[in-house]
């Protein structure tokens, strides 16, 4: 029995953690149902790893096993494809079609929506890393190093690329975001130390490329997983700077409609 005028369940917004979990689950399902996103986040990194590890197409400049050189770079590529390229394109079109505008007036706060998107990115990256690690191990990869260093690199890399992706999606038109995000993906694939060692570039160019987030992420992962190096403080510092700049600029300039 309930008193007159009392409603069950009690009306009102759900608790904030539950809203973020629900939105994160929705974002993850939408990403996994999108064929183009799966091509970008799963198929392309897997093909790059298998193709360049088994076929002598490009001189990677690697010392020792090719797969030992490529696996860390492809893990960095997976973070780039999900946190930057995929998120920028998806968010850009959500903004164009008014999805973000409508979500912005829901009980879920704007920072909660961004937190949910970040959770979806992290879930996707975990699946990518598990898949790519399994493929690399099957190809003969022998990783070394401290898992904590790897985790810190991946987390800071995700933060840096997420900030840059959201900045692009929140300031450019959807079509421009689509073109720019794919162009940046291709440029960083070639010039970010993913499949070709930065040692192949001239000294001045190499010094500039080493400051890119993809170079810091791929180089840091390679130093740890291939060479068994300790905490890569320089690479972590570069990623931290990009994360602060990218997320700060996204928070300042992101337009919801």
UniProtKB/TrEMBL annotation:
Alphabetic keyword roster: Antibiotic resistance, Membrane, Transmembrane, Transmembrane helix
Location within or outside the cell: Membrane
PROSITE patterns reported for this sequence: ABC_TM2
TM ranges: 38-58, 70-93, 114-142, 148-169, 176-198, 236-254
Membrane topology according to the record: Multi-pass membrane protein
Annotated signal peptide: none
Pfam families reported for this sequence: ABC2_membrane_3 (PF12698)
Classification via InterPro entries: ABC2_TM (IPR013525), ABC2_TM_bact-type (IPR047817), ABC_2_transport (IPR000412), Nod_factor_ABC_transporter (IPR051784)
Main location: membrane
Protein name, entry field: ABC transporter permease
């Amino acid at each position: 029995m309930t008193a007159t005028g009392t409603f069950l369940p009690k009306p009102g917004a759900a608790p904030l953690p539950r809203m973020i979990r629900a939105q994160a689950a929705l974002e993850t399902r939408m990403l996994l149902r999108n064929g183009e996103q799966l091509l970008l986040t799963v198929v392309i990194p897997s093909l790059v790893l298998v193709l360049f590890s088994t076929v002598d197409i490009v001189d990677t400049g690697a010392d020792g096993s090719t797969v030992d050189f490529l696996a860390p770079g492809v893990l960095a590529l997976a973070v780039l494809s999900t946190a930057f390229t995929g998120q920028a394109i998806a968010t850009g079109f959500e903004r164009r079609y008014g999805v973000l505008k409508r979500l912005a007036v829901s009980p879920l706060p704007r920072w909660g929506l961004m937190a949910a998107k970040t959770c979806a990115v992290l879930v996707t990256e975990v699946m990518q890393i598990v898949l790519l690690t399994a493929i690399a191990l099957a190809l003969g990869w022998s990783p070394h190093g401290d898992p904590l260093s790897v985790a810190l690199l991946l987390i800071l890399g995700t933060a840096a690329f997420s900030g840059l992706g959201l900045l692009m999606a929140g300031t450019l038109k959807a079509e421009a975001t689509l073109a720019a995000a794919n162009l940046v993906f291709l440029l960083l694939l070639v010039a970010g130390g993913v499949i070709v060692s930065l040692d192949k570039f001239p000294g001045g160019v190499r010094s500039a490329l080493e400051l890119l987030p993809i170079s810091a992420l791929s180089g840091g992962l390679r130093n740890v997983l291939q060479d068994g190096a300790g905490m890569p403080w320089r690479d972590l510092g570069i990623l931290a700077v990009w994360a602060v700049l990218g997320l700060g600029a996204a928070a300042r300039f992101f337009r919801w409609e």
